[in-house]
């Protein structure tokens, strides 16, 4: 069941989202060759706690960290490590903050130093897919309008769209309804209504959209070892259209 949110509840979610925004704004200029994802983890956790919030993913279903740090062929749910990032890497940092019982969620891909033209295009098209999806998240539209816009743009640029990891509703719980893939047909799927709050978080791959899971039970990788990128916003559906609650 989709839980529609009141204006006051959306404001509360927005406050949690602003903690996540501060994390991403802080880390963006620091991502350079030599930094480790464990250092990024510590910075994010410090910011979350400083704001009186909690790092929601730490302990969530046994996940041990405040961030997911996914490098190169890792699509999502990578563990922070002490390995220094090197020039040419791309890294996606995902975090969820809980403030006063409400959640904010955003992932962002970052270039480490100079990256290849392929990596640059992958990141650009993934961000464009996010923006195109948000533009379709209008009251009265259907989720298929959102997902088909993402799929069409990704595939027309030669990239795959991951099917096995889903976007989701969010509020007091991390994975509320709707849970959905970023592929679909226009005019199909759940009707978008005012008061809905959910993520749009396309994960694009350089090659195959199929994935594998590492022995740690979390780390999701491209099956062919090629690059992946992801951008994610939490949005609220208002009468006049979508509000990006994690806008940077």
Automatic annotation (TrEMBL):
Residues 11-237 form the Peptidase M24 domain. Its EC number is 3.4.11.18. A divalent metal cation 2 binds at residues 105, 168, 201, 232. It comes from Paenibacillus plantarum. InterPro entries: Creatinase/aminopeptidase-like, Pept_M24, Pept_M24_MAP, Pept_M24A_MAP1. Belongs to the peptidase M24A family. Methionine aminopeptidase type 1 subfamily. Its cofactor is Co(2+); Zn(2+); Mn(2+); Fe(2+). It is an enzyme of class 3 (hydrolase). CDD domains: MetAP1. Substrate binds at residues 77, 175. Removes the N-terminal methionine from nascent proteins. The N-terminal methionine is often cleaved when the second residue in the primary sequence is small and uncharged (Met-Ala-, Cys, Gly, Pro, Ser, Thr, or Val). Requires deformylation of the N(alpha)-formylated initiator methionine before it can be hydrolyzed. NCBIfam families: met_pdase_I. Monomer. A divalent metal cation 1 binds at residues 94, 105, 232. Binds 2 divalent metal cations per subunit. Has a high-affinity and a low affinity metal-binding site. The true nature of the physiological cofactor is under debate. The enzyme is active with cobalt, zinc, manganese or divalent iron ions. Most likely, methionine aminopeptidases function as mononuclear Fe(2+)-metalloproteases under physiological conditions, and the catalytically relevant metal-binding site has been assigned to the histidine-containing high-affinity site. This is Methionine aminopeptidase. GO terms for molecular function: initiator methionyl aminopeptidase activity. Transmembrane segments: none annotated.
């Amino acid at each position: 069941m989709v839980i529609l949110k009141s204006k006051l509840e959306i404001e509360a979610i927005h406050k949690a989202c602003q903690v996540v925004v501060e994390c991403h704004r802080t880390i963006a200029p620091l991502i350079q060759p030599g930094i480790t994802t464990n250092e990024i983890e510590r910075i994010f956790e410090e910011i979350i706690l400083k704001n009186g919030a909690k790092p929601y993913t730490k302990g969530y279903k046994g996940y041990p960290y405040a961030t997911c740090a996914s490098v190169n062929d890792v699509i999502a749910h990578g563990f922070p490590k002490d390995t220094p990032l090197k020039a040419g890497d791309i890294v996606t940092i995902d975090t969820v903050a809980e403030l006063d019982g409400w959640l904010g969620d955003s992932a962002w891909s970052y270039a480490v130093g100079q990256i290849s033209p392929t990596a640059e295009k992958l990141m650009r098209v993934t961000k464009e897919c996010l923006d195109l999806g948000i533009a379709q998240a209008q009251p009265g539209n259907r989720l298929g309008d959102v997902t088909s816009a993402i799929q069409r743009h990704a595939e027309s640029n030669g990239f795959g769209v991951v099917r096995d990891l889903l976007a989701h509703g969010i509020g007091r719980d991390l994975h509320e309804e709707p849970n959905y893939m970023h592929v679909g047909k226009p005019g199909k799927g759940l009707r978008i209504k005012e008061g809905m709050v959910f993520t749009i978080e396309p994960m694009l791959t350089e090659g195959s959209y199929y994935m594998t899971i590492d022995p740690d039970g979390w780390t999701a990788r491209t099956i062919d070892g090629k690059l992946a990128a992801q951008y994610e916003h939490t949005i609220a559906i208002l009468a006049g259209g979508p509000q990006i609650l994690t806008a940077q």
